[in-house]
Design a protein that fits this description.
The complex is a heterodimer. By secondary structure, chain A is an all-alpha fold. In chain A, 75% of the residues lie in helices and 1% in strands. Chain A has a two-stranded antiparallel sheet with strand order 1-2. Chain A is globular. Chain B has 15 helices and no strands. Chain B is globular, with a radius of gyration of 20 Å. The chains are: A mainly alpha, B mainly alpha.
């Protein structure tokens, strides 16, 4: 088999083909104007989806029923607490980041604690913890937009050689996630648990430890995404995480990872994140309203999963 | 009393404890008007919870519930009021779409979470098309239905009992309900018994759509106007209600009466704090806390049951 056919057997290739067609369709419509700007905007906005998507992917890889619904609440809480602590003081950027990471660590620990101690499905555990996290965020945020330090705003809104900083950051995270998932013992354990938890346990995989670390990883990544998203968008707001609940799940699935777990890939998350942004901007360029845009987004998600599911059943 | 029996009574018990605390803090709620105010917002949530329960009974999960109820509310506040026939046709069509989603999920063996996730965008988009800004007005009869004052028992309580009764009959007593729960428990054995899984699943989704339509209409009857985001919280609330009421995600183990009680408990937990004069910031947190407390109690009961078995 030559390299090209090998490439087309990768589960994530379809999301990149979709990205290219959405980009080309938009460029053709605008008559070749704004292609670079569009690519830059796509990279910036996709970067945040990628960061939360990686965390969600590790959780989903753990097998059926594993999902983290507390991502939006975690993003809001970590951004609120970190930005409040920094109080626009550029010298406190690092301690602020540590606070955000601490929030993610605490959320992940609480989530796994609920799953393990109460023996409840992760959906319910993360759902009930997200209610508590959200309330804490509302209480601490008071409905205001808390401003970030200028250094952080500058960092998140500027770019190096035309590539946005946040895209570089999340590219580095994605590469790290790829090596953790595909090349490290931990990643192999995650995949093994997703394929058959009982077999993994019998084979000596420290199942509880791996699941615990995975939920913590997801919480920490959500916290990081919240920290940078708030800096990028001019402040921590209560509803800043809302859309990322659906996005985090959608990018994992559209990217070609198996929803049943045990079979995931990292490149697809980038492809799907870029695709979701480009579809919205493509429809914007075509001049359709918010309603039609939402409907098209939904239908595209369903179409992609229907086609992807069909590929699997044909095997 | 055995711990099994205690476990079944747990949802009702938690509601009773919460209600007694509210009565204790504010005795004036112990009246016709007070009870109605405490529970009338729970009526549409209870209907949405029953709808979610029907989907969970066949081992799926509906993440589009909130968007769909919002869409129905928008239709009810516009078409159903101005051109009732068209309104009814739209809602019937929407129930048909629910059945089609169930069929698509089964035929292509797709994850329900992702397909309903996509549908939540579709319903949300349709709602925005119908009502780009908050507005519309509830049909007179829907408002009348929620404002009517039956003698003796407040409407909110009557409605909750009716919903629980009808859902209990449909899911626990009718052959339709047995087959639906059977699909959740063991799909293959239901198929061997000669049922078409395709149609059973389509019917489960369609009846979920029907209950969700009722939820949307009654919600507009309460609020008198609609908005495209009016019920987005229903997705998570309905799932929490089913679990709080003793339902489980797999195996077709659901309880309609428990689900209605779960919805009432969540609503009451939300308003409980205002009686304690605690800031409403913690309203959502209280719902999360009550969920965790009840689930923890359930674990304790299970543990004592296992302990008794060993002895």
């Amino acid at each position: 088999m030559n390299n090209v056919t090998l490439l087309f057997h990768k589960p994530w290739i379809w999301s990149f083909i979709a990205v290219l067609s959405a980009w080309v369709a938009t460029i053709i419509f605008t008559g070749g104007l704004g292609g670079a700007g569009l690519a830059q905007a796509a990279l910036t906005f996709a970067a945040f989806s990628v960061i939360v998507g990686i965390g969600q992917m590790f959780v989903i890889t753990l097998g059926p029923g594993n999902i983290d619904l507390s991502i939006p609440a975690t993003m809001t809480l970590s951004a609120t607490l970190a930005l409040k602590f920094m109080n626009t003081d550029g010298a406190l950027v690092l301690p602020g980041l540590l606070i955000a990471l601490g929030v993610g660590l605490a959320v992940g620990t609480a989530n796994f604690g609920l799953i393990k101690l109460l023996k409840i499905p992760p959906i319910i555990a993360t759902l009930s913890s997200s209610f508590l996290i959200q309330s804490t965020a509302i209480w601490s945020n008071r409905g205001l937009r808390i401003k970030p330090p200028e250094v952080l705003t500058d960092f998140t809104t500027s770019s190096v050689l035309g590539v946005p900083n946040v895209a570089l950051l999340s590219f580095v995270l994605a590469v790290a996630a790829y090596f953790i998932l595909m090349r490290s013992l931990f990643g192999r354990w995650v995949l093994a648990i997703g394929q058959n938890m009982r077999a993994a346990r019998l084979a000596g995989v420290p199942v509880d430890g791996v699941r615990f670390s995975t939920y913590v990883l997801c919480g920490v990544l959500a916290a990081v995404a919240g920290y940078f998203l708030a800096s990028f968008s001019g402040g921590a707001a209560l509803n800043m995480g809302t859309e990322y609940l659906l996005t985090s799940i959608a990018v994992v699935v559209i990217g070609g990872s198996s929803v049943a777990g045990g079979n995931s890939n990292v490149p697809g998350i980038w492809g799907a994140s870029l695709f979701l942004f480009l579809v919205v901007s493509m429809l914007n360029t075509f001049g359709v309203g918010a309603g039609v845009r939402l409907i098209m987004t939904g239908l595209i998600i369903i179409a992609v999963i229907t086609l992807a599911g069909g590929r699997k059943s044909m095997k | 009393m055995t711990s099994d029996r205690l476990r079944q009574l747990l949802p009702a018990f938690s509601l009773a404890v919460l209600l007694i605390s509210v009565f204790y803090i504010q005795p004036r709620t112990m009246s016709y008007l007070g009870l109605n105010l405490l529970f009338n917002l729970a009526v549409p949530i209870a209907l949405a919870t029953i709808a979610q329960m029907l989907i969970i009974a066949v081992n799926d999960l509906d993440l589009s519930m909130g968007a769909f109820v919002s869409f129905v509310a928008c239709v009810a506040a516009t078409f159903l009021r101005d051109t009732p026939l068209l309104g009814v046709l739209i809602l019937a069509g929407a129930i048909g779409v629910y059945a089609l989603v169930g069929i698509l999920i089964y035929v292509r063996n797709l994850p329900a979470i992702v397909v309903t996730l996509g549908m939540s965008f579709v319903w949300g988009g349709l709602a925005v098309l119908i009502l780009p800004s908050p507005g519309g007005a509830a049909p007179e009869w829907a408002r009348w239905l929620m404002k009517t004052k039956p003698p003796g028992i407040p409407m909110a309580i009557v409605a909750s009992i009716l919903i629980a009764g009808i859902a209990h009959f449909l899911v626990m007593r009718s052959s339709f309900g047995v087959v639906i729960r059977g699909v959740g428990g063991n799909e293959r054995s239901v198929e061997r018994a000669g049922w078409s899984i395709l149609w059973v699943r389509a019917a489960a989704y369609a009846s979920a759509g029907f209950f969700a339509v009722l939820a949307g209409i009654l919600l507009v009857g309460l609020t008198t106007a609609a908005d495209a985001n009016i019920a987005l919280r229903y997705t998570l609330l309905s799932i929490a209600g089913v679990i709080l009421g003793g339902g489980e995600f797999t195996g077709g183990r659901v309880s309609p009466i428990g689900a209605v009680i779960g919805a009432l408990t969540l609503t009451l937990a939300g308003s409980f704090l205002s009686f304690l004069r605690i800031s409403s910031d913690w309203q959502i947190g209280a719902q999360g806390a009550i969920l965790i407390i009840v689930l923890a109690l359930r674990v304790l009961l299970n543990r004592s049951k296992q302990g008794a078995g060993v002895r």
